[in-house]
Every structure is written in C-alpha cells, then in structure tokens.
Amino acid sequence: MSIVPLHTHPGRLRASNLLRTAAAVAVLLAVVLGLTLIFGRTGERIAVQMCVNVVAVVALAVYCGNTGIVSFGHGAFLALGAYLSGILTMPAALQRSALPDLPSFLAGHEVTIWVSLPVVALAGLAFAALTGSAIARLVGASATIATLGLLIIAHGVAIAAREITRGSQTFYGVPRVTDLVLALGAATSAILLARWYRESRLGLFSRAARDDEDAATALGINARRTRFIAWCASGTMATVAGALYGHMLGAFSPASFYLGLVFAQVVMMIVGGMSSVGGAVVGVIAVTLLQDTVRQFEGGSTVLGVTLPEVFGLTTIVLGLAILLVIWARPQGLVGGFELGPGADANLLGRLKPRVTPARTPESVVPATLKASNLSKSFAGVKAVRDVSFEAPTGRITGLIGPNGAGKSTLVNLLTRAYQADTGSAHMGEVDLTRVSHHKVPGFGVSRSFQNLRLFSGLTAYENVLVAALAAGHDRKTAAAITLRELDAFDLGEVAGYRADGLPYGARKRLEIARALAQDPKILLLDEPAAGMNPSETDDLADRLIKVGKTRGIGVLLIDHDLRFVNRLSDWIVVMHQGGVIAQGTPEDVRANPKVIEAYIGKGRTAQKAEISETNRSQPTEVAIK
Ligand SMILES: Nc1ncnc2c1ncn2[C@@H]1O[C@H](COP(=O)(O)OP(=O)(O)OP(=O)(O)O)[C@@H](O)[C@H]1O
C-alpha cells in the first residue's frame, strides 16, 4: 500500500496532544527566560509584549485555524477589551478629568484587573455573538472582507465616541498592571484553551466544515453554527488579550488597534502556521523578535561603520517580505500542521485498541424505506431529473444506473436535500426530506458518499470517521469504538493516523464509505464508490458492501458506471435516462429491457440483439452487441 509516509509528511507528529501543548508552552517559557536573563529590563518588556501577542494571536487562530478564514476584524475585540478594562480600572479622580462626559453606568468603578477581566470577557462574548450572527454566514474571501469591514467600523466608532474613548486623542491613565507573570499566565491559559477547543467535538466539527462544508453538512454538521461558535470563542479571548494589551501600554488611541497591529498579528499567525496552536506561538516569537530587531534600524543607524538611512515603514516592509517568504517556502507556516490531531502516527490503532474496544456491528435496523415521489429538478431549463419515483428499502441493495448526464447524482442530491426539489417529495418513513434542512437529513437515517471524493483532507483517517460518529450524537468513547469498527471493516486500520489527503485513492474511497457507515444509517447512498478503482479493488469493495448489506440489514442505493459491479451487488436496479426513470426491476429484467439497451447504445442499433455486457470493465457504460 503506497501512502505518504509519516516521516516525510509535513503534518507528522508523534507526540501526544499533551506533549504538543507542553512543547508550545515550553518554547515560550524558554524564550521569555532567555530574553529576561540576557537583556534585563528591555528583555522583560519584549517578553511581556510577546506573551500578550501570544494571547491575541492564539485567539485569532481559534477562529482562523479552525474555520480556514483569515480575519482582520479582531482589532475590534482588542480595542473593546483595552478601552473597557481601561475605563473600569482607571482611578476615579483621573477619570473625572480625562473623561468628564463618560456615561454614568461606566464611570467611577475603579476595580482591579481581576474584576475587570471577567466583565471584559462577557462584553467580548456579547459583541462576538452580535457580529458573528452575520459573519458566520460567510466563508472565504467574503468573510475576510466582512471582518475587515468590522475593523473599519469599530475604528470609526472608537474615534466618534469621544465621551468614552477621547476620540483620536490618547486615552491615558490605564493602570500598567500587565507584568511578566500575568502575561505568561495568560499566554499559557490561552494555549491550553485553544488546544482544548481544537480537539473538542466543536473544534473537530469546525475543522471538518473548514475542509469540506458540503460533506460536513451531509454528516449533520451545521457549518454556520460551527463558524459562529469559533468566532465567539475567538472574539472572547481576543477581548481579554486587548485588555492585557491596554494594561501593558497604559496609554493608547484607536490607531493602536488598527491595521498596523492587526496586520502584524495576522503575519504572526500565518508565519507560524494558521492551523496550529503551536504555530501561532512560534509565529509570535519569530515575528516579535524580527520586529524588535528591525525597529532598531528604522530610524537610521550605523552598522560596522556604515551609516544606514532612516527608512519610514521599514518594519512593515520586513513583515510583508517575511510573510511572502514563508508562503513561498513553507505554505503551511514554519510549524504548520504541527498538530495533526490525536496521535497522527503509524501506530495510532495500536495505541487506541488496548483502551477502546471496537463497537459491535449492528445486526439489524428498524425497517424503513426511502421513497422518491415525482421528484423533478431543472437547472436553467435543463431538466436534470424529471418526475422520478422509486423506492430504496432497508435490507436491499438498489442499483441506480444510467448513461452520463442521466441525472443520477442530481437525484442523490435531491434525496439528501443538498438540492431543493422543484416538485415532488422524498420520504424516509413518514418524514418528507425535501422539507427538512440539509444538515438534518442524516438524523433520519440517510448517509451518503460523494461522486468526487469529499474527505476532510486536513484530518486523519481516524478523525474523518470519528467526526461522523460524533455528529450522529454519540459520546466520545462510543464514537471512538464505532470508528475502530468501521476502520476495521474497511481495512483502514493501518492508515488511521495518516492525513486523509495522503492516502492512496482506493483507501480514500473506502474511507468515505466507512465515514458514512459510522453514522449507523438505515439507507446508505453511494455515488460511484468504485469509480477509479482497479479491478481487484472493485472486487474487494463489492465483497465488503455485500457483507455490510447482509450483516447490518441496511438499505444501499448504489450508483456506478461499472455495470458488472452493480449487477453483482444489486437485488433491484433502477435505470435513468435523460432525467427520467425508464426501467426498474431485477438485474435480469433490466438487462433484457429494450429501452435500457436503446439508452445505452442509441436508437437504430436496438434492432440488433443487444445485451449489457457483464464483462466490459474498462468501458463499463458501453454495451456489447452480439
Ligand atoms: N449544479 C448543477 N448546475 C447545473 N447543471 C447541473 C448541476 N448538476 C447537474 N447538472 C446537470 O444536470 C444533468 C444531470 O447531471 P448529473 O450529474 O445528475 O447526471 P449523472 O447521471 O450523475 O451523470 P454522471 O454519470 O456523468 O455523473 C446534466 O445535464 C448536468 O449538466
């Protein structure tokens, strides 16, 4: 079996999650100690700044790393935290002179930072929930632009709200209480929290939706909800980071939280590796040291007798170059993919099996029937599916065949509510699936695989199946047991700890089926599961599917162009042509049906005795004419 070997894979990591977290904290601690011991007060100042940046960048990565969306909007949370904590902790007398028109509900509190931080976190959560309800609807570039819009609006509001922020003037009088101990403690807590979130059920769902939203939705994951939760968690942490930042500076203005800071923090995250908490830490360390070094030269200096001129914006230029260099040389960041997930190693199963017993194969399911009634769907005038009715009950493998463009995949998309039908209905028992949300369909016992592989490429094979079992509502332990069962059933044990995108093609196809089966469906829809497989892989898959059908009693709706494969497995075959069902019956009946022969070989040749070939495997849709 040829797989991307772990020792050459960028995402390779043998250590356990705990060790990885400890490694990130240890690296930070070592750098902080080194700086303070070598450079004294200056080193300590840089170390405090570094730790506060770790909190901010790790917070940023909780959203960006888990959703794959770069945010420029986190400056808004930083500003909220800094101003709010500044107002709450400011000495009352100073506040009266600096902020004479402050609204009374904000004035005169003069609390300690330990009281202000929880308040700030709650305010951050509320602000995140408010903004997240809109931002979580978006993905990709649109979401990034929306976050930039948020930053611009927040900056404008901070300047306009002069009674609260002193407008664009310096906001002063904030107690400078962020010392090394507080900053280091906060950085460690942020790393732990981010790691915990990443490996939690919600973090896994979020990363699955990041890698393939449609596939995640087909498992029952509400992708928008996962983005919303990641945004709220990230925003809350960023607001606390903002408070620490404000208490480090003592005085600041809206410009302190604008593009300069946000850009630097995004660079830190990308340089280290957006998808990894350890990457965020390394990125902060590397970029903070780079920034501080370059700043020495920004105002002009003399190096080895050579006088360097003053270069305005040198730090920003160097940061820009750093990001370009890293993207070019290491697209995943300096330590990107540092955290692949639980035990990304060749012996994952060996370590899991003593602790987790594979779940027992379900021996039966409650009988049910997936029933399509007069389903139709058009795309800009093209009738992809027209008036289709058929049944796929449990305990039967129903083949669905038809020439290219017959409408088979569209039909599967209608049955799973990935597409909204123009007319007709799809019932699972009493439930009309055309009336439920896409992500709720698996809850009624319908799981699917896709025509083109849609695995969660950044997750391991183990995690791909685990996500499905968790999404079906199982607790972590049961989900792990089901995952082991399905990995065993599809001979994927050896590759459990490898990233899905590094697996050979046949294993990836089997993994998609294992993932769908981990939801214990009543009806399994398989869209061309054998496509691209070689003959021995196809035979092997057929054996496994027959076993699954027999032992579990589930129903399978099987689409494939390999007619030998479909004939071998199916008890009943439905034939589609030009969007409609032209025949259905036993494989023998269907093979002898003139309409089917005509659909496959075209009019004019049907007069000749024709038979769908069971032997033509290389061009399975062709028909051998005798
Ligand atoms: N999302 C879409 N937008 C526009 N047209 C579509 C879409 N999906 C399918 N179609 C069209 O609907 C028709 C049926 O396509 P479909 O993919 O369902 O057929 P199929 O039987 O699965 O074909 P194949 O075996 O080649 O996968 C085709 O004409 C196709 O171009």
UniProtKB/TrEMBL annotation:
GO cellular component terms attached to this protein's record: plasma membrane
Pfam families in alphabetical order: ABC_tran, BCA_ABC_TP_C, BPD_transp_2
Keywords from the UniProt entry: ATP-binding, Cell membrane, Membrane, Nucleotide-binding, Transmembrane, Transmembrane helix, Transport
Tagged with keyword Transcription regulation: no
TM ranges: 21-40, 46-64, 76-93, 113-131, 138-160, 180-197, 228-245, 257-290, 311-329
InterPro entries: AAA+_ATPase, ABC_AA/LPS_Transport, ABC_transp_permease, ABC_transporter-like_ATP-bd, BCA_ABC_TP_C, LivM-like, P-loop_NTPase
Primary localisation category: membrane
Highest taxon in the source lineage: Bacteria
Subcellular location: Cell membrane
Topology in membrane: Multi-pass membrane protein
Gene Ontology molecular functions: ATP binding; ATP hydrolysis activity; L-isoleucine transmembrane transporter activity; L-phenylalanine transmembrane transporter activity; L-valine transmembrane transporter activity
GO terms for biological process, alphabetical: D-alanine transmembrane transport; L-alanine transport; L-isoleucine import across plasma membrane; L-valine import across plasma membrane
Ranges for domain ABC transporter: 370-603
Transport found in the keyword field: yes
PANTHER family: AMINO ACID ABC TRANSPORTER ATP-BINDING PROTEIN, CONSERVED COMPONENT OF ABC TRANSPORTER FOR NATURAL AMINO ACIDS-RELATED
Protein's UniProt name: Amino acid/amide ABC transporter membrane protein 2, HAAT family /amino acid/amide ABC transporter ATP-binding protein 1, HAAT family
